[in-house]
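@channel anyone free to eyeball this complex?
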Amino acid sequence: MTAELATIIDFIRYGASRFGEADVTFGHSYDNALDEATHLVLQTLHLPHDLSPAYGQARLTSAEKQAVLDLFERRVRERTPVAYLTGKAWFAGLEFITDRRALVPRSPIAELIQNGFSPWLDGRDVGRALDLCTGSGCIGIAMASYNPDWQVDLVDISDEALSLARENIDYQDVGACVRAICSDLFTGIPGEKYDLIVSNPPYVTESEFAALPAEYAHEPKLGLTAGSDGLDFALRILAEAPAHLTEHGVLIVEVGESERALVERLPEVPFNWVEFAVGAMGVFVIDRADLVAHAPAILAAAAARG
Ligand SMILES: C[S@@+](CC[C@H](N)C(=O)[O-])C[C@H]1O[C@@H](n2cnc3c(N)ncnc32)[C@H](O)[C@@H]1O
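replying in thread with the prediction:
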């Protein structure tokens, strides 16, 4: 079969067909078979992601063919996300080192970072920002990369995730303004205050987790599950954030499908749900002032969980 496949385009087309035939699940980095196959082929050949189409007709060596086919087969057989196979993922236009120490970067918050958090931060000065539940570090490192005058802290409870985040700090060369801290949410950073707190915490319910496609089993469960309604972390963050936000500070949190449960739990809290290019994605923005105004209801909801 390898004799029939010769060029870069051949292999991208073949990979996409294999993925489609095997019905793999997309969504960890790309939402379709052709983009996944392109990423996998170009990464394996050590070629840039924006390779000129003119090179599409370039032929692979036998060794390169075997390396690409081996990864296609692993993608199909093991259902390993393509970013773990190549060790690299793109997030907010930046390349990150990616492996099983942390989730594959894919938060829609990338779009907010790339558009300067407009309109949510318009007219506000940010000096310090926090990426809470940082995983690979992608959100906080991208914030620092796009805003070199910000000081950014990355927090995670997982030493493994933090070791990957530190590699990404070096990889993106943002060590002068980013530090990684091991902490259970805010517990390990008493007294620290930020103008902006951004978080993509675990928010998958236990029942949703049980039904997830096989790709997700390659990711650390610690990064996904958040109790019976997915709100274990979101409610703690809402309750504890005011103490760590400056007076005009802003909190941005991704809760995905748990948006509905959160709105049912706290109907009176004025969450602003972000509209992304692809639509709503369960990301809210809220000012510290609104968190303080609704603190009794938020604290009661958080305390009710024990
Ligand atoms: C959904 S992942 C998000 C990772 C990264 N922010 C991203 O967008 O790719 C959630 C992260 O929260 C971390 N985490 C889980 N429990 C935590 C806790 N109690 N305190 C801090 N981080 C926690 C996990 O280790 C995981 O890296």
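from a first look: The domain at 102-303 is CATH 3.40.50.150 (Rossmann fold).
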